[in-house]
Amino acid sequence: MIRYIFIFFILPSFFCGEAVAESSFNHPGIFVSLKQLQYVKDNLSSEPWKSAYEKVLQDPLADKNYEPTPWSTVECGSFSKTNNGCKDEVRDAQAAYTQALLWKLSGETVYAENVRKILNAWANTLTGGHTNSNGPLQASWSAEMFTRAAEIVKYTYTGWPQSEKDKVAKLFAKQYYPDISRMFTGSYACYNKNWHASAIEAMLNISVFNEKKNWFNDAIKKWRSLVPAYIYLSSDGSRPKNASWCSLNNSQINAHWNNPKSYVDGLTQESCRDFEHTAYGLAAIINTAETARLQGVDLYQDKDSDAQKRIIKAMELHSAYQTTALSDKLCQNYDGYKLNTKGTFEVGFNQYSVRQGLNLPQTSAFLVSTRPTKGHFHYLWETLTHGLVGDRNHGN
């Protein structure tokens, strides 16, 4: 009898179609790593980190006497017209992340204790989740920041008891993840896609903190469907692609894309709405890729979504319209490109230009003119954490 010996090779996820390898999660591994933060700490006397650090320290989110304002139920209507805990929750989430960064950059335990206090306050209070029309988006924005803070402190601060960490994991699983998941069903499925981008980042972050590989893989799958549906390339054809959870016909797509003058490489679903909401979407898309990278999954160069070309084209296009005052109109409804993408693109630029050595002249000029930045809602302090740090944030 002939016996056959089969040798199986398990390839890292960088080289295969699967989302995550069978190895355990890397910690801390949500958006920032210890090597990256140590590099920033070692260079706080140099630019761009010096000015960025000073900007953080002067912000109310960095107050050493910060007090959280938790709610048992957070109710948020459109544009937060019903605002029962909405602004308080986002502010607390931003403060938690800000102070987690300061804990690692300064070494002062007061910052770690403040993060612990904020997270415990919400873990012990929030029981009714997120309601009203903006509930899923509110949950996403808050979770994107809370998880970053929790991840840093969980793995670097010995003063946080395990029982409290477990409560926070339960908070993310019970009070955030279900509300965020609603984003991809019913009437929410075809909302402006910065919603879905934030939802995906939040879901990925929660999966890392709670070590849920099935949640991680689901977020990666959704990201790969979102990116081609949010950023257009001419290779897509005469119209943008659909996301798997939202199917629009040819007569609906222009309205969904806010009536562009034409579809050009790098245009996003919200470019002709305004550049601020475009920044919301692009920031979450890029930041998801950054966390995935720390977990061994290279979404930046993902072939399924043609991510590298899409993200670079989007950054270059939107930077150009803010730095060189291009005369060509992108949109039928306005040509002022109100508001802007200030506060983001540092992470994407660091990946494609600093790490990979690609030329992004428009993005470079835009970042030079806007550094150091703060950000909005679910993205903060990108100049401090990712401005020109290079490859030092891979691994811990």
TrEMBL record:
<dbReference type="GO" id="GO:0016829">
    <property type="term" value="F:lyase activity"/>
</dbReference>
<keyword id="KW-0732">Signal</keyword>
<feature type="domain" description="Alginate lyase">
    <location>
        <begin position="90"/>
        <end position="322"/>
    </location>
</feature>
<dbReference type="InterPro" id="IPR008397">
    <property type="entry name" value="Alginate_lyase_dom"/>
</dbReference>
<feature type="signal peptide">
    <location>
        <begin position="1"/>
        <end position="21"/>
    </location>
</feature>
<protein>
    <submittedName>
        <fullName>Alginate lyase</fullName>
    </submittedName>
</protein>
<keyword id="KW-0456">Lyase</keyword>
<dbReference type="InterPro" id="IPR008929">
    <property type="entry name" value="Chondroitin_lyas"/>
</dbReference>
<dbReference type="GO" id="GO:0042597">
    <property type="term" value="C:periplasmic space"/>
</dbReference>
<dbReference type="Pfam" id="PF05426">
    <property type="entry name" value="Alginate_lyase"/>
</dbReference>
